[in-house]
Amino acid sequence: MSRFVFLDRDDTLVRDTGYPHRPEDYELLPGTPEALERLRSAGYGLAIVTNQSGIGRGLFSESDFRSFQDLLLRDLAAHGVEIAATYHCPHAPGDGCGCRKPAPGLLLRARDELGAELERCWLVGDAERDVAVAARAGCGGAIRVGAAAGTPAPGERPAVFHEAADLAEAAERILAEGAW
């Protein structure tokens, strides 16, 4: 599979309660499994790319992250949705790593490990850094979900850029664009 939709996690798939990492923080956003299943049925692979600076800030551990992530993956699997891989950056914003979005490290790793043709891929996330990483890595398109303010500068967004209220609307936009 060479076409993927890369998904931010917090406020794209699950409610962002402020560094969610405990089981009691877990809340899958409405319509998420159905939207992901539509994308998968259209031939897209699905992978998660997420900044998790709470690890680098000492707010929670890698083990906490993995447990929360396993909860999400089990929930999605129970709805028939398979996620090919999860890529996360555990670093704090000031660490200067190459994997913290908007740096392209996570997407370049996904390209290498999953065989993703980034120019045929989308990224869906709730922040300008999600749109910017799509542009920096060479993704064909990006969709920002939610009520984030401001529009990324043309140099910080891929050729195809949309905004959507939620993941369900983002999936509709991706499917309407067709294949590149």
Describe the overall structure.
This protein is of the alpha/beta class. It is built from 6 helices and 6 strands. β1, α1 and β2 (45-51) form a beta-alpha-beta unit. It is globular. The protein starts with a strand and ends with a helix. The model has no long low-confidence stretch (mean pLDDT 94).
Low-confidence stretches: none
Return the string of H and E elements: EHEHHEHEHEEH
Q: State the helicity in percent bands.
A: 25-40%
Number of beta-strand segments? 6
The CA-CA distance between the termini, in Å, is 14 Å
CATH homologous superfamily name?
HAD superfamily/HAD-like
Please give the CATH class: Alpha Beta
Overall mean pLDDT: 94
Please give a handful of descriptors for the protein shown.
180 residues, globular, 6 helices, alpha/beta, Rossmann fold, six-stranded parallel sheet, 6 strands
Brief write-up:
This protein has one domain: Rossmann fold (3-Layer(aba) Sandwich), CATH 3.40.50.
List the helices and strands and how they pair.
Layout: E1 4-7, H1 32-41, E2 45-51, H2 53-56, H3 62-78, E3 85-89, H4 105-114, E4 122-125, H5 128-137, E5 141-145, E6 160-164, H6 167-177
Parallel strand pairs: 1-2, 1-4, 2-3, 4-5, 5-6
